[in-house]
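Inputs:
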Amino acid sequence: MTLRPLIAGNWKMNGTPAFGAELAAELAANFAHDNVEMAVFPSFTSLTTVEAKLKGSKVALGAQNIHAEAKGAHTGEVSAEMVKACGCKYVILGHSERREAGETDADVAAKTCAAMAEGLVPVVCIGEKAKMEAAEAQSILSAQLRESLKNIAITDADQIVVAYEPVWAIGTGLVPTTQDLEQAFDFLRKTLVKTYGEEVGGNMRILYGGSLNAQNADEILPIPHINGGLIGGASLKAESFLAIANAASKYA
Ligand code: PGA
């Protein structure tokens, strides 16, 4: 890996602010790598509490979603400006659990623009739903990339992080074979380079997500073009999340 890997913890709908404070404090005290970046993505309700615990540490903060509009009559929604004001550097967009709830590529494209306008780094998630032939998965992935990043200027694209998460691998304990991951990430890198050129497409980080844990990190993270991970279950305990970051540091 030549790009500085990002180890991103998607806490999903887990934990009160008290839970977040405890986990964040443990990560802040123990994460010391310079060649790896770590970020955590708590619920909106825990952002400010977690931010306070991360202050002065090497661990960054992110949100799990934003609304595409800057403000207005959108009850229950949260804007890019709001999460930025809570100290977020990153925002996850188009996670499969949100796509499952109706979010489309067009929504993700609009949210990506909103995030970037506010100076947030979008972590744009893509992934095929079921196990399938490589060629079939690749056509889904390239369409998701094209549509989700539709309105992004080529010169801005290297600020985007792409997360490839085969939906069937999320929360199931199943992971693609090394060979399948090599093929998928080679395809994703080539697609980004073809779209944005070597300079930009070659510098976009691509994360793997889906049942990544402390046990399989040493097999997955050294694979070419995998520039870190988006981790759900294993990010809810400091020990396993830090172990994944340690593995990433070895291959960075
Ligand atoms: P998992 O979740 O690590 O629990 O499979 C990953 C994700 O949904 O981002």
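The first strand starts at residue 6 and ends at 10. Flag for discussion at group meeting.
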